[in-house]
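Table S2 (text version). Query chain:
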Amino acid sequence: MRRWFLLLAGYSIIAVACQLGWLGNQWANQIDQWENLAPNKNAWLGTDHLGRDVLASIFQGCRMAMGIGGIAAFISLCLGTSAGLAAGWYGRRTDQVLVWLAGATTAIPGLLLALTLAFALGAGFWTLCLAIGFSSWVGVFRLVRIEVRRIRWEGYVGAAHAWGATWSHLWCKHILPQLAPLLKVQFGLLFIFAVKAEVILSFLGVGLVGQPSWGQMIADAWAWNDLGAGRWWRLTGATCAMAGLVLAVQQLCEVTVQRKRTASLRKA
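Corresponding structure-token output:
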């Protein structure tokens, strides 16, 4: 687990450094006669067709991926958790309406829905966050709804309610703490989906415009036939950067699930 945590910490440090302007500022600099240079001592991962430093673009793409992944996952988690709490706790008509809304949302594949929303709202950072967040909340909703319906009838919840505990107190003190491990894993999975969706949407031209993105780098490599011309560094760099981030978060989610399972078996 430690190596995956350190890898994710490295991505986070790079993203913060880029946001503060300490790293990758030269990503947009176009240097004459530096077009399509192979990796060298001046540009460790070479340059692109405009003479821009590929490594600097990858660093800035990390900033965008971490930002969009975190914000979109947070939006999706809040939507799914709120709807799941309401449906599982109140039931009846509230449950029916929210279940219908979830079914209507899943009628369209998540990536296609995100593509439609991004196209309708226009390209941009916050547009991507909202589009991805609104298209990926259903899985969290279903899991939270099931857990809340189970916890609601536990004896200690009924006892606390009988002693005059308010609904907000029950949610904050008894239900959300039990949902915390589940929500932690779901946040990681939503983060992975958001990173992949951002790359795909940027590759298709409805993502980030005028900003560095791994998806845009892959699209440019495809458009300029980098692999056909033997220029492997731009496509390889962007792909490996994305794969490393996704793999680190995925492995940390699996470790969290295993620890939760072990703790449940010990209690049993």
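Notes on Table S2: The two ends are 25 Å apart (CA to CA). The longest helix spans residues 167-204.
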